[in-house]
Amino acid sequence: MLKQLRYGTFIFFGLLTFGGVLFIWLVVPETKRLTLEEMDILFGSMGMAQADSQRMAEISKEIGLDDVLRGVGLGGGSSGDEKPSDQIHTVVKHE
Predict the structure, then answer these.
(1) How many angstroms separate the CA atoms of 83 and 17, rounded?
(2) Any residues with CB less than 8 A from the CB of 88 and at least 6 apart, and which?
(3) What are phi and psi of 65, to 5 degrees?
(4) What digits encode the pLDDT tens for the residues 26-68?
(5) Three-class DSSP category at 40
């Protein structure tokens, strides 16, 4: 069976690969040296990171993780006016 195969399959997949390279080169935007926020803007998902951090803060509060961290001294006794990202940085600073 393998002896009957010609170069058609090789050429087909070679052209398919070459077409994929052209597609990536011409259509997909460059993301090198971009921050995550800039990539959110580029791909149209603005606010996803902020929404995710807010949701994580809600989950932490719901399951009592905030109370546990305050009891250990890592929560810093947040006053409620801090952003969830500020609370995360507080935890990292104490470690």
Answers:
(1) 47
(2) 53
(3) -70, -35
(4) 998 888 888 877 887 777 776 777 778 888 888 888 888 888 8
(5) helix
